[in-house]
Amino acid sequence: MKKLSLLAVLLAAAISACSPKFDWRDFRSNHAPYAVLFPGKPATHTRSVNLDGLEVKMTMAAAEIDGTLFAIGSAEVPDASQAPQAAAAMKTAMVRNIGATITKESANGNAKDVEARGMNKGMPTLLIGRFLFKDKRVYQVVVIGAEKHIEKEAVETFMSSFKLN
């Protein structure tokens, strides 16, 4: 009986060790026209935010895996001409919120890709983000966490899977 119990424990340990850290799942927002792969089941929350003088309702969808946050924020501005300003305000607010400094930035059409580094609870923190707009919609696609725990492959999967519908 002891051998059978030991075998069951070892089998359970082996099965749990084989379970993937990231459980990639397709997510389609009910609030904005986009789809993305999240590494776990995302939670969503909507709240009012001020984007450089524009009051908007922003919906966040996010999943956290081992202290690394994978998140999408989306909002609609009153007029498409305000979208570039709102996307820039999203970027500034996100970097400021984690007390980071932008270390890398590039633009591609209506999108800006950013890497920023800061400190959180004494740990080097990394933000990898894309801030973009299309018509009256603005988006932030971000990964934030302790720099030593962020996995490049997971970041690439998440960022490259984001598609506007």
Describe this protein with a few key phrases.
3 helices; globular; alpha+beta; 165 residues; seven-stranded antiparallel β-sheet; Protein Transport Mog1p, Chain A; disordered N terminus; 10 strands; 25% helix
Notes on the protein architecture:
- It is a single chain.
- The longest helix has 17 residues, at 2-18.
- The chain has a single domain (22-164), classed as Protein Transport Mog1p, Chain A.
- It is α+β, with helices and mostly antiparallel strands.
- The chain has 3 helices and 10 strands, in the order αβββββαββββαβ.
- It starts with a helix and ends with a strand.
- The chain is globular.
- CATH structural architecture: 3-Layer(aba) Sandwich
Using only C-alpha atoms, the radius of gyration works out to 19 Å
CATH topology label = Protein Transport Mog1p, Chain A
Instruction: Report on the biggest sheet.
Output: 7 strands, antiparallel
> How many discrete domains?
1
Please tell me what the overall shape is. Answer: globular
Tally of DSSP β-strands = 10
Low-confidence stretches: 1-19
- Counting helices, strands and paired strands, the structural category is alpha+beta
* Percent of residues in beta strands: over 45%
State the helicity in percent bands: 25-40%
> Order of strands across the biggest sheet?
3-4-5-9-8-7-6
CATH class: Alpha Beta
Report the end-to-end length measured between terminal Cα atoms: 57 Å
Could you state the order of secondary-structure elements as H and E?
HEEEEEHEEEEHE
Overall mean pLDDT: 89
Count of DSSP H/I helices: 3
The CATH superfamily label reads Mog1/PsbP, alpha/beta/alpha sandwich
